[in-house]
Model the fold of this input.
Amino acid sequence: MAQDTVRRTPLSSLAWQGMAGSALVAAASWGVGWFPRNQLSQLARTGFFIEFRTELLGVLVCIAAMALGITWLMRAWLLTRPWVSDTGSISERQLRGLLIAWGAPLLVSFPILSRDVYSYLAQGRMLHAGKSPYTEGVSALPGWFDGGSDGLWAQSPSPYGVLFLVASRAVFFISGGSPEIGVGLLRVLAVAGVIGCYYATGWLAAKLGHNPRWALWAIVGNPLFLLTMIGGVHNDGLMIAATFWAFGLAVGGRALWATLALALAVSIKPIVLVLLPFLGLAMLPANPSLRARIAVWSKISAMSAGWLLLFGALTNLWFGWLPAMFTSGSAAFPYAPVGLLGTVLGHLGSIFGLDPAMIATVVFSLFRLLSLYLVARLALHGDTSRPLRLAAWALCAVVLLAPIIQPWYILWIFALFFISDQVSWPSERLMAWLTMAITLVVFVDQLSIEQWHSIWLLKAGAAVLGIALMVLLVRVDRPVRRMLASAPFTAGSPGHGA
Done:
């Protein structure tokens, strides 16, 4: 269907609707967001916030407000889709204004959809105390639980790179252990990641000849991205931005600076090291010989090793992250298929007197080897005309075959797939459905509710309310229903699908 048959909601309306949704989420986080608890917290002794958390009515109001706010923000995002079909419908300045309006209220929220920011502070605290987060979990120091860290990381090595751990240490030192100051400083880094993503996405999409407005809408404007990066204070934005800069520089043949950018990404989250072969493919003509691939891989591997050696020496953490990449410690997440399989087989083995931890470790190791095999197959693929698409599939294999999958990991996969080309309308619609479903799941799962309330009953109610609002959005809301029912493309708009 042509785009002019899909009625566009005015941009001013989309701006205030998204801002209102984010403001509701931010206000609701005062009651059901992750709250600082240690003895250095000032807010923990503030009666204004405690009222939202201790009284059942306050908790119910905050749950309803957050569910409504997420749905409202999702609506604004979906209805922006007809505007980004071609670069002439909306200017870069107008799109930037929309994203600022949607994200700004989240700057004053308590951490939502995740409490990893408290793990960042805990690992910075460990480093400050002279302990390596790569060899010990956050439980190595007393008081870690009161600091807000998820028990998932109690005895698990850090999944973060050396530069980010050093930044976390600096934040812990500057904050003096105050969680409010620490979260605020880490949010500055998170927002820097969002800004970096914005500029890197537009730049790389234009460099590749794709529609930058659509890429910005799909990657940076995605509500799950804004809610987890700004509201949840995550470092993934920094990683994605550095990765995009790396591939953009590689396309231009600037190997030294491309490897520096990728090394920076690895120094935030080491998992992106698996993209190194595809960075080399981006520097070569389509379908190069094996000899040409080996030559460029040798070159960029040496450069990357040099940068990572420099970072390791400067931080005195060296390559401690490398073995940590291949173990999750106790961090096996039952919602991950491989994590679930390892856990189940471990329990079955214990019936016969076998060590369940050993069985789980063997299962996890086998699937890691399988993911590395798939990465190698993709790197040796005959058609290398779209190295970023191959990189997306490689990262997809590594993420989906890991023993732990966090909901925001899907944003890494989205980013690489959507920057490599504009996907077909059915795939784009699937992306919208996945965004809504994952946001709803993580909203319910990550509600912070005090233990004297009926936690599971309140979460069940939140799930029912969230599902009802999403159903109303896609089935009853006429503008959204029309938009999802027909591809909002204009003739000649770039990237009609791949």
User: Anything to note?
Assistant: Confidence is low (pLDDT under 50) at residues 490-498. The first helix runs from residue 11 to 32.
